[in-house]
């Protein structure tokens, strides 16, 4: 088995989504300051991280969109780990509609929308409103066909030129987690891999960064 990392590295003050603050990565306890707490020659470092939940490669649960939706603590592992992956080569030209799934069996699978938009990560162009996204019809098709999770390597799974978010609305209403800001999917086969993107079980949070990866035979 070979493991393929599909996550962006989280770095100090990096920008994931335009308008959201970057993470603050620092120290709670340094090696030097720990010396007074332990025996001579024994030292520890304890880091501190402050960030919005939508940082790096992250997973959305229904509570991200719905007040009565389940949060990270109630996310079943069966919804985010060891899922058969179906990769859709969606292109980088904008809307991804229902026809993208006409000839594909997605039932019980993590559907990963490969657009190549991750090549713009870290640049102003990454947040361009012309980014590829899933349409309302495409979201309905994935729900109807039994997808278990949907991921994308773009800045948002939705069109961000309006205040509507149909893909989030439809997928999360059906209990389908969404993983955004994937990267490195060019090495993934269309089928045959297992996909995992597991966040910590945090009560009261709807979204959190994940270490998304694929297991390849």
> What shape does the CA trace take?
globular
Uncertain spans, ≥5 residues at pLDDT below 50? Answer: none
The gyration radius over C-alpha positions equals 19 Å
Order of helices and strands: EEHEEEEEEHEHEEEE
Notes on the protein architecture:
The chain has 217 residues and is mainly beta. The protein has one domain: 3-Layer(bba) Sandwich (Glucose Oxidase, domain 1), CATH 3.50.30.50. Helices cover 10% and strands 24% of the residues. It contains 3 helices and 13 strands, in the order ββαββββββαβαββββ. Strands 1-13-11-5-7-9-10-4-12 form a 9-stranded mixed β-sheet, with helices on one face. It has a two-stranded antiparallel sheet with strand order 2-3. The protein has a two-stranded parallel sheet with strand order 6-8. α3 links the parallel β9 and β10. α2 packs parallel to α3. It starts with a strand and ends with a strand. The model has no long low-confidence stretch (mean pLDDT 97).
């Amino acid at each position: 088995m070979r493991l393929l990392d599909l996550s962006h590295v989280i770095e100090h003050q990096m920008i994931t989504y335009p308008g959201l603050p970057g993470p603050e990565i620092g120290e709670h306890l340094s090696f030097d300051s720990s010396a007074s707490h332990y025996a001579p020659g024994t030292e520890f470092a304890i880091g501190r991280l402050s960030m919005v939940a939508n940082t790096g490669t992250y997973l959305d649960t229904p509570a991200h969109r719905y007040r009565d939706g389940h949060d990270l603590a109630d996310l079943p592992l069966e919804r985010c780990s060891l899922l058969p992956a179906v990769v859709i080569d969606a292109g980088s030209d904008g809307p991804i509609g229902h026809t993208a799934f006409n000839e594909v069996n997605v039932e019980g699978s993590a559907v990963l929308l490969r657009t190549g938009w991750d090549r713009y990560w870290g640049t102003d162009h990454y947040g361009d409103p012309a980014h590829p996204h899933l349409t309302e019809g495409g979201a309905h098709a994935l729900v109807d066909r039994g997808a278990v999770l949907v991921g994308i390597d773009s800045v948002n799974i939705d069109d961000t030129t309006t205040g509507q978010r149909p893909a989030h609305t439809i997928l999360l209403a059906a209990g389908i987690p969404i993983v955004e800001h994937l990267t490195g999917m060019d090495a993934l086969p269309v089928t045959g891999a297992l996909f995992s993107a597991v966040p910590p079980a945090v009560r009261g949070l709807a979204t959190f960064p994940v270490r998304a990866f694929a297991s390849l035979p």
